[in-house]
Specification:
- With 307 residues, the chain is α/β, with parallel strands linked by helices.
- The protein has a single domain, classed as Inosine-uridine Nucleoside N-ribohydrolase, Chain A, CATH 3.90.245.10.
- It is globular and about 50 Å long.
- The protein has a 9-stranded mixed β-sheet, sandwiched between helices.
- The protein starts with a strand and ends with a helix.
- The protein has 13 helices and 11 strands.
- The structure holds alpha-D-ribofuranose and calcium ion (CA).
Length: 307
Amino acid sequence: MQRIIIDTDAGVDDALAILYLLASPGVRIEAITTVFGNVDLSTATANIAEILTVAGASVPMIARGADGPLAGQRVDAAEVHGDDGLGGWTRRGRVSGPALDPLPAPVVITRLARHYPDQIDLLLIGPATNAAIARLLDPEGFALLRRIVIMGGAVFGPGNVTPAAEFNVFCDPWATRHVLDSGIPVVMVPLDATRKAVLTRKALEGALASRSDVRAAFLRTICGHVFRADRGALGEDGLFLHDPLAAALLVDTGLATATRNVGVAVETTPSEGWGRTTAVSSGAPATVVLESDLARFLPQLLDRVCQ
Ligand code: RIB
Ligand code: CA
């Protein structure tokens, strides 16, 4: 049994990653923790209820985290994910809002790490703020995490928010640096890998066929919004599978076909380089994924997300 915590800013690709993990055998989601990013914290948290309702699933804990970065201005990605983070889907269905844990996300992270020492894998698919605060509040508890998989950064290629920075790191570079410096084994899944993982409208419709159930309607709505947003970058209706690829690499490490063990530096000076991630010997050690087995990942993703 692989015990995981998903820390998420609950946008469209986050929703696909959560649906994928809910359908992944041998994976126990101990908690979903929410953070600002694609949308504000309240919206991100409400979106978890929407996603779980569509999936007909529940998780033991949902906990709210940070609504802003350790330093810098809060940004969002509503232009990509929609104002509600789910392409306009929300409040269409009856949402049985699961109870929120009274503890804040950073405390939930370290309490679970203490309860299950060296067993918890932490997946960061939004800004790393909650994880950084967790380490600051309880470094001994944080050190009991087994592994951290981070969707973030652009190590050998350009960013997607500025030429220098990828969105999750751009949102809170100080937090990303603090997590990389923690000494916990880190697998970094940067744009270098995730830009190569694309879900096209054709592939989604091929998987959904003539289905008209709530899950099919949800997937068409949330993906349809991003298809339009990413069309310029892709030349066809499609979306980048940033978070789902990170989720898949968390539970199926064999999907990584090219990695580099490098030091990663994060730029935290207020400049045009804010949030830049570079491979330097003086940086914090991380395993950076550059290529993955897309021929195996894409069918696996569609199978689990569309089940
Ligand atoms: O840069 C891609 C990342 O930023 C993904 O996690 C996406 O959901 C956004 O948060
Ligand atoms: Ca995300």
